[in-house]
Specification:
Blueprint: E1 5-12, E2 15-23, E3 30-37, E4 47-53, H1 60-66, H2 70-76, E5 79-83, H3 116-119, H4 122-137, E6 140-150, H5 152-163, E7 170-174, H6 184-194, H7 206-211, E8 221-226, H8 232-236, H9 238-248, E9 252-257, H10 264-283
Parallel strand pairs: 4-5, 4-6, 6-7, 7-8, 8-9
Antiparallel strand pairs: 1-2, 2-3, 3-5
């Protein structure tokens, strides 16, 4: 396990918000990540950690700068970890012109197709490599980890959380791509990264995972979805996920929020509820 370099660190609500880079073995590239370390860790304690996966075109900076999450994370004693949304500088040039595929759009899968397969391994990066690095170099309690995300990152959080309940003990999402096999974004990404055989896609579709009862548990999944979200009608499919949860018995709280769109004004409004949701799960006896 290699170390990391510090790009910048900033005092924040008694803790530290830091931006870092390391050489990733999974992606074969430098990867950027960010960590908010709460003040409780300064006293020598290891603290619960919650991973946040960002959406299309975003980076490791987006949530840390826009969500306003550090104040409450400091109060609750939660470490926050974010990461870039794909490797950078290695996408095949002729296939990297779209904002919803290629750079900034890794979809949190381990690609199997062509030139994508070597570097686009975001599923393994999120579930294995980055948590190992955080455990080694930061005061994280690896027995108390949660995951959440937004849009493409909400999809990633649901998939990573459902497939790895032993790693991620709490789970939530903002406006997730909840059934990617049934929407244009998901079909485009999965065809490009995973190939045309749809039978290989289901392990990266949260609705399919729940329907197959993979990762089912008594833990509650929290989802917030804006009713004025421009992507709701054609891309996000929260009702398909809710139907799968109902059929399988998976506990879900799906909150449809009138008037809210897809952006960070929406996320910053409800991020406190999500952090408290994770804190309850990760600090329960």
């Amino acid at each position: 396990m290699t170390g990391y370099t510090i790009r910048s660190e900033h005092r924040s609500f008694g803790g530290v918000t830091g931006f870092y880079t390391h050489e990733s073995e999974e992606t074969g590239t430098p990867m950027n990540f960010a960590v908010f370390t709460p003040p409780q860790a300064a006293e020598g304690a290891k603290v619960p950690v919650v991973y946040y996966l960002a959406g299309l075109t975003c980076t490791e900076e987006t949530f840390m700068i826009k969500a306003g999450a550090q104040r409450l994370a400091a109060e609750l004693g939660l470490m926050l970890v974010t990461m870039d949304t794909s490797p950078r500088g290695v996408a095949p040039e002729e296939l990297d012109g779209d904002w919803d595929f290629g750079s900034g759009a890794g979809f949190y899968v381990d690609a199997t197709e062509g030139a994508w397969a070597r570097h686009y391994r975001m599923y393994s990066y999120v579930t294995r490599e980055l948590p190992a690095l955080i455990a080694k170099h930061f005061p994280a309690d690896t027995t108390r980890q949660g995951i959440f995300g937004h849009s493409m990152g909400g999809h990633g959080a649901l998939v990573c959380g459902l497939r790895n309940p032993d790693i991620f003990k709490s789970l939530s999402a903002f406006a997730p791509i909840a059934a990617p096999m049934s929407c244009p974004w998901g079909e485009k990404a999965f065809t490009g990264y995973l190939g045309s055989d749809r039978s290989t896609w289901s392990i990266y579709d949260a609705s399919e995972l729940v329907a197959a009862r993979m990762g089912k548990s008594e833990r509650l999944i929290l989802i917030d979805q804006g009713e004025a979200d421009q992507f709701l009608p054609n891309q996000l499919n929260p009702t398909l996920f809710a139907e799968a949860c109902k059929e399988s018995g998976q506990a879900l709280e799906l909150r449809m929020q009138p008037g809210y769109d897809h952006g960070y004004y929406f996320i910053s409004t409800f991020v406190e509820d999500h952090l408290r949701h994770h804190a309850r799960a990760l600090t329960a006896d």
